[in-house]
Design a protein that fits this description.
about 120 residues, alpha+beta, Alpha-Beta Plaits, four-stranded antiparallel β-sheet, two-stranded antiparallel sheet
């Protein structure tokens, strides 16, 4: 079964790391991704640019409203994701708990719901 692991981080804390500290974190992330890949669990993963670089879009009654990101009032923002294959939710949680993202922030683990044939 496929699970989306959504990594939330406090952007201010990320910005406070020195270049060396951040490079060490990214080495840990690469090691984690390599381990997932080696064991056949990794489908895809990516970091995201800061929320301030994006936009939030809403369409209501045919009218589009575009706001600069982030729109949600929270310190933690989506920093990236891991799309993994796992046996069940407990297995996905076990895999996500090994992520540096879980140690530095929060990771939400959610099963994908297949949309059906296209």
């Amino acid at each position: 079964m496929k699970y989306l692991c959504i990594a939330f981080q406090d952007q201010e804390k990320l910005d406070a790391y020195s270049d060396e500290e951040f490079a060490q974190i990214m080495e840990r992330v690469e090691f984690y991704l390599d381990d997932l890949n080696t064991h056949g669990n990794l489908i895809d993963a990516s970091r995201l640019q800061p929320a301030s670089s994006g936009a939030v879009i809403q369409v209501r009654r045919g009218n589009m409203l575009v706001s600069d990101g982030p729109f949600i009032e929270t310190r933690e923002q989506i920093a990236g994701y891991y799309l993994i294959e796992a046996n069940d939710l407990n297995d996905a949680i076990r895999l996500a708990a090994k992520s540096p993202s879980a140690q530095l922030g929060t990771v939400e683990v959610r099963p994908l719901k297949e949309l059906g044939p296209r």
